[in-house]
Each structure stands twice: as C-alpha cells, then as structure tokens.
Amino acid sequence: xxxxxxxxxxxxxxSVSALSIMFITEYRRxxxxxRPRSSCYLRNDPKxxxxxxxxxxxxxxxxxKHFKTSDSTDDVGAERTSNLHPYEAEIxxxxxxxKLELELLSEEFGLxxxxxxxxxxxxxxxxxxxxxxxxERVFAVDTEQHSLRSFLGFxxxxxxxxxxxxxxxxxxxxxxxxGQLRPVFTDPSISKVFHGADNDVLWxxxxxxxxxxxxxxTAKACEVLLKPQKSLAYLLETYCGVTTNKLLQRxxxxxxxxxxxxxxxxxxxxxxxxxxxxxxxxxxxxxxxNSSPDDKFRFVLEASRRSNMACxxxxxxxxxxxxxxxxxxxxxxxxxxxxxxxxSASSEFQDVVRRLCAWRDxxxxxxxxxxxxxxxxxxxxxxxxxxPTTSKDLLSTVAQADLNADSSSSLPSPSPVVISxxxxxxxxxxxxxxxxxxxxxxxxQNCLGSSGSCRLSIFNYALLVNSNLKLTLVSKQNMVKNSKxxxxxxxxxxxxxxxxxxxxVYHNCRIxxxxxxxxxxxxxxxxxxxxxxxxxxxxxENPPAIMLLFEPKGRPEDEDNDFYIQIxxxxxxxxxxxxxxxxxxxxxxxxxxxPLFVRKVVDAEExxxxxxxxxxxxxxxxxVSPLQLRTAAMALLRHGPRMPSxxxxxxxxxxxxxxxxxxxxxxxxxxxxLVGMSPHEIRRLExxxxxxxxxxxxxxxxxxxxxxxxxTETSVVPDLSAVNSSDAKVERFSRKEDSEFFMVKDxxxxxxxxxxxxxxxxxxxxxxxxxxxRSGVSDANNVSGVNADDNSDNGSPPNGxxxxxxxxxxxxxxxxxxxxxxxxxxxxxxxQVVDYLLKEYGDDSIRQFCQRWRQVFVEAVHPRFLPAxxxxxxxxRRDFGEFSVHNPSHKASRGTKT
Length: 898
Ligand code: AMP
Ligand code: MN
Ligand code: ZN
Prior knowledge:
Blueprint: H1 2-33, E1 66-67, E2 81-82, H2 88-96, E3 118-120, H3 123-134, E4 138-146, E5 154-161, E6 166-170, H4 182-186, E7 191-194, H5 198-208, E8 215-217, H6 218-224, H7 232-240, H8 260-271, H9 273-291, H10 298-311, H11 325-335, H12 347-367, H13 371-374, H14 377-385, H15 391-405, H16 416-420, H17 422-430, H18 436-448, H19 461-474, H20 482-500, E9 509-512, E10 518-522, H21 524-532, E11 536-541, E12 544-548, H22 571-592, E13 600-603, H23 604-612, H24 616-622, H25 626-639, H26 645-658, H27 666-674, H28 679-689, H29 702-714, E14 723-725, E15 728-732, E16 741-745, H30 750-755, H31 763-771, E17 805-807, E18 813-815, H32 827-841, H33 843-861, H34 888-894
Parallel strand pairs: 3-6, 4-7, 7-8, 9-12, 13-16
Antiparallel strand pairs: 1-2, 4-5, 5-6, 9-10, 11-12, 14-15, 15-16, 17-18
Helix pairs in contact: 2-10, 6-9, 6-10, 11-12, 11-14, 12-14, 12-18, 14-15, 22-33, 25-26, 25-27, 31-32, 32-33
Zinc ion is lined by residues 40, 42, 367, 420-421, 447, 453-454.
C-alpha cells in the first residue's frame, strides 16, 4: 500500500515536471515561430535608403572595407578592398609639398550668390559635373547628413561650388553612382576647400569610397591664424557679411524637394568658401612677410599640412567587444552622477542596462535606425531603475522618461521599434536566468530568420549572412587527414592549378534570396549579370555576395525541396569528388556504349568515299583522333618548314588521314586546326593570333551542303542528333562498329561566330550541366532558373539563341542544335548519354541518372553535413524564373535579338 502511494507520488512528480518542461519548450518554440509577419513597422513603411543598391558600410558587426586602387586590373574579382588608405602616398606627398591654386581666383569672381544653381540628380548630370570639375583647379565642398533614421548615417546632399556655379548633388538619388566623383576628389592637382572637413572626409569614405586628396580646410587656417573663432558662421559674417541660420543643419536632409531655406543654407555653406579661403591665404602670407622672408609660406604650409592630415583619417565602424557596451557605461556614469561610484549601482540595474543597450544596438541595426530613435538613454535608465512588471507598464515607463527628458521633442515615444518588438523586449527583462549570448541570436532569428518579423534590407542583411556563413563554412573544415596530407600535396597543387587558374575567383561569390537564404555559389560574372539588370543588390564585397531583388522561381521552399544549393567543397574534397566523378563517367561510358572521347574524325568531303565504302578497314585508315589532328596541324603550321623532314611527313600523314588520304594544303591545315574546337576556343585562338587569322572557307556552296546534309542524314541513325562542334557539323556514323567515328563538315570561320552572336560561355559550362563535372552533383548553375552565364553586354540571352536549348527535369539545360561542346572534352559524351537515356527510357531515367551521380558524390566524399533537404533521391522539377532567358514567354522578345 505504501509502495503504491510512493509510486503514485513519483509518477505525479515526473509527469508534472515533464508537463512543465513541455510547456516551457512549447512556449519558447511559439515565441520563436508563431510570429505574425506583419508585426514590424517597417513592413508597411519601407525606408528611403532601402533603394540603395551598393552599400559600403552596412549595419553588421564586420569591419568597414576601404577602397583599393588597383593597377592590376586583370585580376578581376581579386581583393578589391583593404584597410589601408588608398591615397596615402598622394596625401603625404602634398604634406611635404602643398599645391594650392587659390591665388588663381579670377579678378571678377563675384561674391554674390546668383538665383540659379544646378540640381544634380541623374547619372548623366553627375557625369557632366565630374567632367566640369576635372577642368577646375579648385572647388569648394560641403555635405549634409541624415542620421536620425539610419544606424550609421548617410550623406543626403553634397554641395559643390566652383567660381562659376553652385551644384547641389542629390546623393540619395545618386547613391550608387557617386564613385563617379572619386577621380576629381582624389586628383592631387585639384584643390578642395572645405570648412571643418574632419567629418565630411569620413562620411565620403563611408558612403562612396570617395577620398579627399589636396584639401584646404578653412577651419584649420583659422587655427593657424589664431582667429578668435573658427566657425563657418563667424567667417561668413566677417568676410562676406552674410548671416546663416545654423539651426538648419539639423533639418531632415532626406526631404525632397528641399525647402527654399534649406537650399539657401546648403548653397551658403559651400558658395563662399573659395572666397574665404582666398582671404585666409592672403592673411597667412601677410603674416609670414611680417616675420621672416625665409619662410614666406610657413603658415600656408602649416594650414595645408593640418588639412591633409585630416584626409589621412580612415573611416571605421565602431566595433565593441560586446554590443552596446560603451552606451551602457555612459548611462552608468550619467545615472550615478554625484551619487557615488559605478560599483555602487545595483548589479541588477547594471545587468538590465547592459541587456537593454545590447537589444537596442541590435534592433537599431536590424531596422537601420539611430540608437536614440530606437530607445533613448533616459528610457533605458528609467526601465533599469524600476523594472516594469507588465508590457503596458514598460510602454508607459518609456514614454514618461522621454517626456521628462525633453518635452519638446518631436520623436515618437515609445518608438515604433519598441512597439513592434515589445514582446521581445519584455521577454528580455523577465528572462533573468538566461544568458544573453543565447538570447540575442534568437532575437535576430525572430527578426530576420526565414519567417522573421522584420524586413530584410541591404543594411541588416550581413547580420544574418555572416552568421549563416559561419555555420556553412565551419562544417567544411577539419576534413583534411593528417597522414595523407603530404602525399597528396603534389596532386592537390595540380588540382588547384587545373581548376583555379582558369578564373582567379572560382565560385566564391554567393547569391542570397531576399529572405536570407543562401541560394548558391557562383562566379563574379554571374553576379555582374544580375547587377547590370537591376535584379540584385550587393550585400558583401569580399568575398562578393548579392541579394536577389525578386522572388526566384523554383526556390527550395516552393516545392519543399531544399536542394539547389551548391555544395562548397574545399580543394581536397573537390579532388576526391572529381576523381570519383571521372571514374563514374568511365563506367557510364562502358554501360551505355558511349565512348568518352571522340576517337576519330574525318572530313565530310572525303566521308562520302568512306561511308560509301563497305570495307571498314578503310575507315580505320582514314579517321584520326581529334587531339592528334589538332596537335599535328598546329605543329605543322608553326614549325613545319623547320622540322626534320621525317617528323614533318609523319604529321602530314596524320592530317591527310583526316582528309581521306588526299594531298593537303596550308588552308587544309588551318581548317584541321579548328576541328573540334568550341567557338570559345576558336575565338581564343583568334585573339592569340591577332586579327590576321586567315579564314578558311567552307568548301561547298550552301545548296550543295544542304543536299549533302539531307543525304547523309539518311545514312545516320535518325535518333542520334548531330553533335556540332562550333560550325563544324559532326555526324556520328550509322554503323555500330563505327560508333567512335565522327564526320566533320564545313568547319566555320572565326568571324562567323562573332557575327552569329554565339556567346563566349566556356564549354565547361555545358559540360558541367551534362556531366556534373565539378563535384559530381547536378549543381545549380542556374539559380532559380535565371541563367546568368551571359558575358555580353548587349542583353542577348546568355547562351546564344534561346531556342537552342530546352529544359529537362532537374534544371539541366542542354543544346538542341548548336553546341558549344568541344570535341576534345567530355561534352559530346554527356550529350550522347542523355540523348540515349531519353530515347530508350524516357524522362524518368534522367532522374535516376542524376540521382546516381549524387550517390557517387556522397559515397566518395562522405559529407558529414549537407544542406537541409539535400537528398540523393530528390526529384523536384524546376521551372524557369521570371527573368530566365529560357522562360518560353521571353523567347519571342529576346530570342530574336542576336
Ligand atoms: P554643416 O555642414 O555644418 O551643415 O553640417 C553637416 C551635417 O552635420 C549636417 O547635415 C548634420 O547632419 C550634421 N550636424 C552638424 N552639426 C550638428 C548638430 N549640432 N546637431 C546635429 N547634426 C549636426
Ligand atoms: Mn553644411
Ligand atoms: Zn522589426
């Protein structure tokens, strides 16, 4: 009996604790997940700065990257940023030997401000401004910032004045293009006059990577001259008799159009600077004359030195060991002002202030707001003083604190940030036991995670991206096995050379969807493709990353398949995967009876003789391997006359075999060289040879060719479509025993390729899609069906004519008629296998085929982590995206533009 009672008690305790654990877990899970999307105020009220496409300083905790002047422009995609001053040498040179052009001010330089000024808001106007300024010896500059509704602040206006004109540059409209002014600002032969430039210099770096070289700061001149004041208002009054209302500097400079007063204020800040600088320089020279004739320019030199010194500053984001730390300290000291030491503040007060400061810091970054807009210091102190017990109480504490501090403030209190995220804030205050290291990542996920409450923007994106990336990359490390490392080094080096030398940055660029999901890795060209079409924004510079501005079709979530994310491999794993893929390719070749390489080719003119002949022995004599053919032709063209005659005969014989054994000419050699080349290779050859390349002509008139085409078609197995290499028409022979035999017709000329608008996409692209060469995975080279393999700037479809391609399951696109496959690669092999599978077993076999490739990959690499949803047996379809050049609805309009 007693036993039963005890047992009952234990059961009750166990189930109660189990229930409460379940309850708490469930509660937290709901807090995290069941957040209505519309809860954040920015969802309905996007900000002006969200239209910026290139933001250099985002709100993440990562360091600011400076511009890097690059003389080696050939390494595209190489590191373009650094943490050194890109114009340090130019500026230091000026400090030793200043160049001041102010005495050149023309006699008739009028002090008055005219009615007219130039409002610069288009790219063209900006270009014109840059051109106009490049002809000036000196111009004056001032900038206006907006800082209330932005975390780091941004330049809202730049005023530039020359002797003739006042320009107001709308740096919101032109935000992404302001780099146009970099050359004039960095030109040491053009003086720039600012007043109190210390901040402007940094702001220009932060927003536009604009660096000021050759500055004359009128405030520094005042210092040198020991003026009683050095404010601009003072100088304006003293030298120009102009009064200005400095209260306007706190206006909201985002507004458009600017009010009359604001225009007047902005112009005034720059317009008189040239004149004032001129006066100050004259005074400084005067001073010098009075002292000693030796150093006539001592004062001017000093003012110039101090000015240029300010230009050597480098913008940096404030990075704190723990976010909000410095704000918390300043609140402690202010709160305790006159009340004793910081340590006397209760530890709860300190703890709450720290939490609130950290929360405010994160929230301000997420929403791109200033700290003071998100939550004031007063409000933080008030909350920490007496921690509210309900969320309603929390709101009124904030409102009251702000009212007490400044009853005339026009800022909303509590701010929309607090109101939108009241739950989190309240939770943060209640959760005394929790470690804030855990809370903040969770809050970030609540806000910006895949079903987060807040709007993703170019400013907050990297907060998420960087944390994501960490997870992604960490899992790829520690895969190198120590003992094998040395033995592998040689092959690794070879591998690196093989794959990474072709293009310096290989697939290290990231493409993210608008909600923060990593879609894939790709190369720089693809990023540029999206950016040129305004389809994406740059979210990270190094390594580059973009965020798509449209909702891509065929996204993982769309069909519950989290699949089309390329798997990033380290070099060693890549090598393993590659080896396995090569092995599997050989197996496939055997299984399907499709040889990996084209064994033999023969010129079409001679093919008639061969195919007409019944002796297969003759075929063997006549054909030649494409590689052998090319090597022989190349050697003969280059070194023919200087070769030992025996060697020359051997090589000539090889080429003759291609031409069915007949005598060959120089022109034949050139034709032979082109056999099996992809258009890309042909153009490369053409470039290498210069434009003097002698074109060989197709030997048959179009009519005859047509006839021949159809007549040979009858002798070719109808299901095997011709594999075309460049314009050379290659046909597979009908007879089984000749399955390794190709016939080449009408080798095209290089210029033809250019005219026909076939793109320059390296053959490897197609090869990849066909054989999954890179990693053995049918990887998503085409993000969400938008093909970005376009190298041309004319907007024509990336892969040449759109109708040359059609899609199959799993996003494999492959050529129907024109091929960019080189006969020397595995391209034709891949195509033949796919054709064969389709014909014999239908669509489903392709799916199985792809799955097998994935299996080969997994078996070879044994990845410990794969993207969520990545699955060997995955078989989701992918549709073409809205912007895809393969999207049938675009074919009519885009396909014709060649
Ligand atoms: P200014 O060139 O003097 O008009 O100042 C340039 C920018 O600095 C202004 O657009 C403001 O954003 C900022 N600024 C300067 N002084 C203040 C101030 N006292 N309060 C707020 N913002 C200021
Ligand atoms: Mn100003
Ligand atoms: Zn929000």
